[in-house]
Specification:
Blueprint: E1 4-7, E2 10-13, E3 18-24, E4 34-39, E5 46-51, E6 57-59, E7 67-72, E8 77-82, E9 91-97, E10 102-103, E11 107-112
Parallel strand pairs: 2-11
Antiparallel strand pairs: 1-3, 3-8, 4-5, 4-9, 5-6, 7-8, 9-10, 9-11
């Protein structure tokens, strides 16, 4: 059974930084594409970033230059470094095993103005 456990969310002022982490239990984690999605109140869930097993990355336009996704295949973790945060980044952030189509429970990120 796959488990994805997110951590690192919280409250931060605009312009600040947070680092989200996701611990995964999938056996072949290193082969899986992993992603971070987010959902703000009243809005649809949207892609933030993907990272393939080989480290290729893809970012939504609204986070390019501010967020960085990375992974540690030895530790089965994927992280999202978020810099220059804006109030519009406020959302629940979800870690997703894209290969298995499985999503964690999410972690709240709140950016105050």
């Amino acid at each position: 059974q796959v488990q994805l456990v997110e951590s690192g969310g919280g409250l931060v002022q605009a312009g600040g930084s947070l680092r989200l982490s996701c611990a995964a239990s999938a056996r072949a984690f290193r082969l899986h594409t992993m992603g971070w999605y987010r959902q703000a109140p009243g809005k649809q869930r949207e892609l933030v970033a993907h990272i393939s097993g080989t480290g290729s990355t893809n970012y939504a336009d609204f986070v390019k230059g501010r967020f960085t996704i990375s992974r540690d295949n030895a530790r089965n973790t994927v992280s999202l470094q978020m810099n220059s945060l804006k109030p519009e980044d406020t959302a629940v952030y979800y870690c997703t095993d894209v290969t298995l189509d499985y999503t964690g429970e999410g972690t709240q990120v709140t950016v105050s103005s």
